[in-house]
């Protein structure tokens, strides 16, 4: 981003790049590998007065489950930060990366990574240029919580026990806002054009059923092809048979995350098939309506002979 700013000398281009990157994180389209922390853990050196770092807490849980799984002194323990209950400590939201990969209910805490990890270093750089990076993010999500607040609050518990000096109401509001942002960027978007909608496909795309059907089928083919490509690469690397399941779980390999994401997308195609059937019905209805209107029949019969109408008969009788 600094290179982009120096080349273009335009902060608006940097702002657009940042907001687009944040949207991808909120959409969940960024690989889990990009969110992994791997910090050194030195068990036995942390004070009992405060909470240990997330990596140390995760290593301690591993030791409790298996005493033989104690990490070496200074070993780096990989972990990611996931969404948690209101008031949950950071160390309680740290989980191994494979837990997020295999469990679709576990989701990366996008708000934490954007607000606590990405924005602070950007602020230290661009504040010197007079740019308010945090306001870029606040402007991007402005109105999101207001649009979905009613739907989120209706499904939230009435009281939540909070920690860290915040009241129950403050923690509940903070969690509702975070859930509203997550819902906005994940569920309330058209699968084709990204327009805000409560259904899978917006009304605008439904007005063009043939184009929408072609786009949906193309999306399905794209997912199937991506799964085939990642599977082929992993089979070649592990030297396993095509029909056998791939047992490689290397957290250092980007193809492991790409393959798991493709498998998850393949599971989500079931919903796309339902949308495809709905759009096919709309396309059939539209074609039937066009046939029902029809074209006015010509008064010329076969071989250009004009057909005789009742009015012609009356004229002949008068004559």
From TrEMBL:
TM ranges: none
Protein name: DNA-directed DNA polymerase
GO CC annotation, single: zeta DNA polymerase complex
InterPro entries found in the cross-reference section: DNA-dir_DNA_pol_B_multi_dom, DNA/RNA_pol_sf, DNA_pol_B_thumb, PolZ_Rev3, Znf-C4pol
Keyword Signal: no
PANTHER family: DNA POLYMERASE ZETA CATALYTIC SUBUNIT
GO biological process: double-strand break repair via homologous recombination; error-prone translesion synthesis
Tagged with keyword Protease: no
Catalytic activity: DNA(n) + a 2'-deoxyribonucleoside 5'-triphosphate = DNA(n+1) + diphosphate
Top-level enzyme category: transferase
Organism in which the protein naturally occurs: Sphaerobolus stellatus (strain SS14)
């Amino acid at each position: 981003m600094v290179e982009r700013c120096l080349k273009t000398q335009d902060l608006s281009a940097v702002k657009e790049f940042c907001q687009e990157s944040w949207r991808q994180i909120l959409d969940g389209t960024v690989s889990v590998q990009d969110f992994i922390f791997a910090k050194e853990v030195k068990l036995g050196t942390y004070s009992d007065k405060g909470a240990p770092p997330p990596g140390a807490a995760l290593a301690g849980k591993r030791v409790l489950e298996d005493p033989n799984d104690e990490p070496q002194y200074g070993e780096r323990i990989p972990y990611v930060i996931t969404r948690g209950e209101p008031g949950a400590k950071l160390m309680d939201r740290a989980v191994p990366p494979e837990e997020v990969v295999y469990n679709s209910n576990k989701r990366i805490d996008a708000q934490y990574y954007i607000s606590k990890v990405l924005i602070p270093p950007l602020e230290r750089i661009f504040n010197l240029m007079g740019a308010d990076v945090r306001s870029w993010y606040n402007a991007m999500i402005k109105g999101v919580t207001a649009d979905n607040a009613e739907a989120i609050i209706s499904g939230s518990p009435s009281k939540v026990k909070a920690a860290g000096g915040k009241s129950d109401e403050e923690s509940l509001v903070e969690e509702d806002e975070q859930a509203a942002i997550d819902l906005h960027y994940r569920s309330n978007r058209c699968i084709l054009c990204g327009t805000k909608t409560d259904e899978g496909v917006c009304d605008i795309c439904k007005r063009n059923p043939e184009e929408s059907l072609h786009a949906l089928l193309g999306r399905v083919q794209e997912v199937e092809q991506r799964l085939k490509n990642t599977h082929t690469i992993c089979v070649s690397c592990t030297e396993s048979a095509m029909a056998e399941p791939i047992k490689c779980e290397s957290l250092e390999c980007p193809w492991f995350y790409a393959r798991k994401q493709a498998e998850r997308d393949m599971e989500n195609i079931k919903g796309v098939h339902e949308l495809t059937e709905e759009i096919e019905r709309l396309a059939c209805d539209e074609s039937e309506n066009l046939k029902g209107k029809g074209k006015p029949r010509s008064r010329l019969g076969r071989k250009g002979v004009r057909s005789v109408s009742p009015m012609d008969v009356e004229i002949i009788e008068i004559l």
